[in-house]
């Protein structure tokens, strides 16, 4: 069977009256080409039916022109996750009736990665999984990209070390611990201090319960929570541990507290998803938020603006985290001998109704 040869970069260059380098720049680095020249190249490409080959460009430059993002989805933690993934028909017609699970923190960060990759002329490969099943998926992505962004606790450390020996790798949310990776984090401690000072000084709350998924990020929040309570001479409670995406666990914990009659002045939750479950459980039990007990979160996901009462929280700059990660990776790709980068971004307190503040 004869193989039909498509138009080449040489054909486009000849038709547009430019060099092949100019054709390449018109597609890969358009900011380096005058508008009139770029338009001539694009017109020639359209007329010839030419599509640039990323593989060819990669061979020529020794790079792929792509970044990788290894992510996760809270929906995968649900008991019926496997059935949901297999039931494509249900996925088409079923409404997203649980805004606690999508879009959440990871989705907004991913959007920032997508936008910044696009603005810098990089393609983006996205994959995901859990630590038990991630090695094959992430190594497949890593072999096709120039740099990789990973969410925390998604990849075994040994796998991450192997990948970072070949391409730059950036981990989101967790601080550096001599792991050979770039890092983007947020100021968790400052955010929790802002929140606790508001609850203690403005609302005069004295008794708290801290609900948390245990990890490095939430430990920083709990340490700041502890520090503020100690500074005010207040009792420091132990962490009430929840699990990611497992709303039943959090609901059971709150129900147990209700049964004991030991309600706090405020449930301080280490993330918004758990705060929303706490609010739902209290409402179902006939306990009014914030009239009888206050509830706060951390992250600033969309769902917190949609519930009633609206959720007081600490907002992370999630899109900026994704954009910053791409910025750091692109610099690391072009300067492979430069030092590792760790960047901490600020957060800010978002006061709404669930702490007892008036609706604005």
Task: Please explain how this structure is put together.
The protein has 360 residues and is α/β, with parallel strands linked by helices. The protein folds into three domains: 9-52, 434 Repressor (Amino-terminal Domain) (Orthogonal Bundle); 66-186 and 317-346, Rossmann fold, CATH 3.40.50.2300; 188-316, Rossmann fold (3-Layer(aba) Sandwich). The protein is 45% helix and 14% strand. The chain contains 15 helices and twelve strands. The strands form three sheets. A six-stranded parallel beta sheet has the order 2-1-3-4-5-11, sandwiched between helices. Strands 7-6-8-9 form a four-stranded parallel beta sheet, sandwiched between helices. It has a two-stranded antiparallel sheet with strand order 10-12. Helix 11 (216-231) links the parallel strand 6 and strand 7. Helix 1 (9-16) packs across helix 3 and helix 10 runs parallel beside helix 11 (216-231). The radius of gyration is 25 Å and the shape is elongated. The N and C termini lie far apart (71 Å).
Query: What is the alpha-carbon Rg in Å?
Result: 25 Å
Please provide the ordered H/E string of secondary-structure elements: HHHHEHHHEHEHEEHEHEHEHEHEHEE
* CATH topology assignment of the largest domain: Rossmann fold
Uncertain segments are 91-95
Q: From the 3D coordinates, which CATH architecture of the largest domain would you assign?
A: 3-Layer(aba) Sandwich
Gross morphology: elongated
Top-tier CATH class of the largest domain = Alpha Beta
Strand content: 5-15%
Number of domains: 3
Number of helices: 15
Q: Mean pLDDT across all residues, rounded? A: 86
Coarse structural class: alpha/beta
Going by CATH, the homologous superfamily of the largest domain would be: Response regulator
Q: Which strands sit side by side, in order, in the main sheet?
A: 2-1-3-4-5-11
Helix percentage = 40-55%
Profile the largest sheet: 6 strands, parallel
How many β-strands, per DSSP?
12
- State the end-to-end CA separation: 71 Å
């Amino acid at each position: 069977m004869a193989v039909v040869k498509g138009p080449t970069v040489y054909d486009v260059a000849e038709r547009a009256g430019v060099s092949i380098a100019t054709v390449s720049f018109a597609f890969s680095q358009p900011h380096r080409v005058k508008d009139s020249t770029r338009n001539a190249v694009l017109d020639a490409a359209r007329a010839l039916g030419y599509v640039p080959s990323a593989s060819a460009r990669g061979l020529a430059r020794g790079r792929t022109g792509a970044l990788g993002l290894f992510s996760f989805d809270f929906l995968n933690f649900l008991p019926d996750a496997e059935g949901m993934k297999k039931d494509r028909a249900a996925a088409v017609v079923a409404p997203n009736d649980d805004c606690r699970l999508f879009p959440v923190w990871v989705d907004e960060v991913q959007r920032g990665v997508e936008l910044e990759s696009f603005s810098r002329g990089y393609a983006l490969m996205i994959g995901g999984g859990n630590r038990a099943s991630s090695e094959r998926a992430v190594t497949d992505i890593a072999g096709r990209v120039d740099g990789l962004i990973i969410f925390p606790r998604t990849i075994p450390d040994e796998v991450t070390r192997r990948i970072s020996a070949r391409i730059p790798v950036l981990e989101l949310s967790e601080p550096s611990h001599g792991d050979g990776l770039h890092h983007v984090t947020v100021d968790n401690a400052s955010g929790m201090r802002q929140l606790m000072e508001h609850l203690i000084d403005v609302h005069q709350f004295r008794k708290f319960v801290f609900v948390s998924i245990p990890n490095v990020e939430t430990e920083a929040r709990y340490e700041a929570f502890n520090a503020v309570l100690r500074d005010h001479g207040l009792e420091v409670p132990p962490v009430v541990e929840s699990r990611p995406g497992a709303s039943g666990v959090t609901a059971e914990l709150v129900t147990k507290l209700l049964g004991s009659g030991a309600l706090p002045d405020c449930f301080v939750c280490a993330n918004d998803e758990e705060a929303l479950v706490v609010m739902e459980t209290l409402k179902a039990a006939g306990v009014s938020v914030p009239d009888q007990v206050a509830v706060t979160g951390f992250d600033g996901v969309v769902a917190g603006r949609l519930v009633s009462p609206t959720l007081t929280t600490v907002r992370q700059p999630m899109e900026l985290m994704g954009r910053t990660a791409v910025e750091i990776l692109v610099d690391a790709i072009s300067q492979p001998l430069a030092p590792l980068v760790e960047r901490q971004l600020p957060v800010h307190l978002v006061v709404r109704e669930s702490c007892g503040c008036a609706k604005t």
